[in-house]
Amino acid sequence: MIDVEVIRARSLGDIRHGFLGRRGGVSIGATAGLNVGIGSRDDPAAVAENRRLAAAAVSPGAPLLTLYQTHSADVVTVTRPWADDDRPHADALVTDRPGLSLGILTADCAPVLLADHDAGVVGAAHAGWKGAIGGVTDATIVAMERLGARRERIAAAIGPCIARASYEVDEAFLRTFTAADPANERFFAPAREHHHQFDLEAYVANRLAAAGLTRIEALGLDTYADEARFFSFRRATHRGEADYGRQISLIALRDD
User: What is the pLDDT averaged over residues 156-166?
Assistant: First the structure.
């Protein structure tokens, strides 16, 4: 079995964290590798083992907490563990409690990990286009501030997500963003007639900067283009595949 690949961000320093892809794990078939998606059609035993492997690779011994993600701007403040079948409906988590591993699942959407090292506060956000334009990162920052973080100290890293070259959208999609702010047109590039290429990573980075963050790292890793390394919902859809895997991004405060 291939070892679990953990991609780290310089901006988050020694905070326990990692962006994981599909390398490692026990799943086979369409979801081969480290598929952690409870909602996939994968063998539940394989998913459970992959989740154990993922958590152990980043923060050994820490309970893994994930959400029932709904592409919202809802944030959960975590004070204690919960069971996988009791996951809150939300798209971001924050905590100031050591020893809890916060996890966000993605398969093209942008995972964002955040930390105020001095305050001892961390967060994780699932920023698909709906959540991103809806303000999920802004809401995560506010929730971190309620725990004592200060936005001028918060570092953020944007992990593997679909890149502009792989993300074609239609005119209605463009209008949704320009209606919110005409300046959003700069995140779109021309494509075939009546279509555009959307830069999700750049848009999320801009939202973080507009919120007052000054340490923002974008890893520039394209989930759609790198099949060997990442799962991709859009790639699976374009191929007419019956299922797709989900990767996980994790962050935790040390309890040692």
Answer: 98
Give residue-wise pLDDT tens across range 84-130.
999 999 999 999 999 999 999 999 999 999 999 999 999 999 999 99
Confidence of residue 2 (pLDDT cuts 50, 70, 90): confident
Residues 83, 226: Cα–Cα separation, whole Å: 32
Task: For tokens 């995972």, name the residue.
Answer: 111
Amino acid at residue number 36: V
Q: For residue 1, what are its two tokens?
A: 């079995």
Query: Three-state SS across the chain?
Result: CCCCCEECCHHHCCCEEEEECCCCCCECHHHCECCCCCCCCCCHHHHHHHHHHHHHHHCCCCCEECCECCCCCCEEECCCCCCHHHCCECCEEEECCCCCEEEEEECCCEEEEEEECCCCEEEEEEECHHHHHHCHHHHHHHHHHHCCCCCCCCEEEECCECCHHHCEEEHHHHHHHHHHCHHHHHHEEECCCCEEEECHHHHHHHHHHHCCCCEEEECCCECCCCCCCCCCHHHHHHCCCCCCCCEEEEEECCCC
Q: What is the pTM of this model?
A: 0.97
Q: Residue 32: which residues within 8 A CB-CB, separation 6 or more?
A: 22, 25, 245
Domains (ranges, CATH) in the chain?
Answer: 6-163+199-252 (3.60.140.10)
